[in-house]
Amino acid sequence: MGKKIFLMIVLFLFLNPFFVFGKEAGESAKITYKTILQEEPKTVFYQKAAIKNILEKYHSPLIGEVDTFIKVCYQYQLDCYLLPSIAGIESTFGQYLIPSSFNPFGWGGGKIFFKNFKEAIEKVASALKNNYIDRGLTTVETIGKVYSESPSWSQKVLFFINQFKKEEENLRLYFEKNTVKL
Fold this sequence. Notes:
With 182 residues, this protein is an all-alpha fold. The chain contains eight helices and no strands. It has a single domain (42-176), classed as Orthogonal Bundle (Lysozyme), CATH 1.10.530.10. Helix 3 (41-57) crosses helix 4 (66-75), helix 4 (66-75) runs parallel beside helix 6 and helix 7 (140-147) crosses helix 8.
């Protein structure tokens, strides 16, 4: 039974056009799921599933943005669990924020408004890459010293990063133990 479910999930991920974004004119360098899946399909599968499972666990309104989290982490070379983890501590994964702000990251003290969660994820990912990582702030601890006034911010972000990593590890153990041979 588990092998059939795994096979159905894999086929769904690879054959569903929703997960493969095409290129638009003038965007030849744009990261697409097709590119990501060609590089490391298992890794992407586990990361997506881990993010989805943790967001579901916390009843997050960000559940529909799993693909956006994955896309921007590869596009900006971020840890795929960094942004969801920041949302975890700043807004309990998007549950507690200024109404209609779509700002689960506490960006600008939570007072910056975005038109939707996708825009928030994309803009904050870009800002983290350009204003933090490209300037040498490459660890959660160094990012935390600038991102937040709280001295425990980085420890809390790492707590959620570790939850995502543990979920990914559990998924790998389950699916790799029950591999499908064709």
